[in-house]
Design brief:
With 229 residues, the chain is mainly alpha-helical. It has helices at 10-30, 39-54, 71-78, 80-97, 106-131, 137-165, 172-204, 213-228; strands at 58-61, 64-66.
Length: 229
């Protein structure tokens, strides 16, 4: 999913950088209400885990490979605002220190993975959590749904950018078919990793999982009402 330098033309890259900068600025403001003494270390751990996860590629067939994007995973664990910031930091380090993703394409990568991937994944997670039984065990399943949905949507968003400013002489339809089909397979791996990580944290410390807090609040309310009766 890391877009290299020169894959999109300069106007498109500049436009995505402007949008990404606006998204990161909004995330900085939004993260203030989520950030506390417990969440701050968790956000750092999430960034480190995603950085390490993105360095590991797994085969998806036909000579292609994929890696963890981590948008839904981060959003469920620490909330979407902090998730956007965490993934942005990861992409900055990768671009400037490891040449993973182009420097001129940094705005594009932040837009695709740190904004589209995070917010689409979190939206799908919330819908799935609403549809599933209101139990803590549902959080990992809902997170997997969000992860699976977010990956091909981010791939489709890249195709839209390519249709506007792609530099390679490849038909847009071919790019869309290739990107979405491959990233559906990557999404399956993303869903499995996300379900495993979120489920493990929920089993030990559900209070640290942003996406589990509404269920914890509901359970505490039910316990109080039962105690009164």
């Amino acid at each position: 999913m890391h877009v290299p330098d020169g894959f999109l033309d300069a106007p498109t890259s500049i436009a995505t950088a402007v949008v990404a900068a606006g998204g990161v600025a909004a995330a900085l403001r939004g993260a203030r209400r989520d950030l506390d003494d417990a969440v701050a270390p968790m956000a750092g751990l999430v960034a480190v885990f995603i950085f390490a996860g993105q360095m590991i590629n797994f085969p998806v067939g036909a000579g292609t490979s994929g890696h963890l994007l981590g948008g839904a995973l981060a959003a469920v664990l620490v909330g979407p605002w902090l998730a956007t910031l965490s993934i942005t930091v990861v992409l900055l380090v990768q671009a400037f220190l490891f040449a993973d993703g182009g420097v001129t394409a940094l705005g594009t990568n932040v837009l695709l993975m740190g904004i589209v991937g995070v917010w689409v994944g979190y939206g799908a997670f919330r819908l799935a959590r609403w549809a599933l039984p209101r139990r803590l065990s549902s959080v990992g399943i809902a997170a997997a749904v969000g992860a699976f949905v977010s990956v091909p949507v981010a791939a489709a968003a890249f195709t839209a950018l390519f249709a506007v400013g792609g530099q390679a002489p490849i038909p847009v339809g071919s790019v869309l078919t290739a990107m979405v089909s491959v990233h559906v397979l990557i999404g399956i791996g993303e869903a499995l990793i996300t379900a495993l990580v979120v489920g493990s944290v929920v089993a030990v410390r559900p209070d640290l999982v942003h996406g589990a807090r509404p269920l914890l609040a509901t359970q505490e309310l039910e316990i109080r009402e039962a105690a009164r009766t």
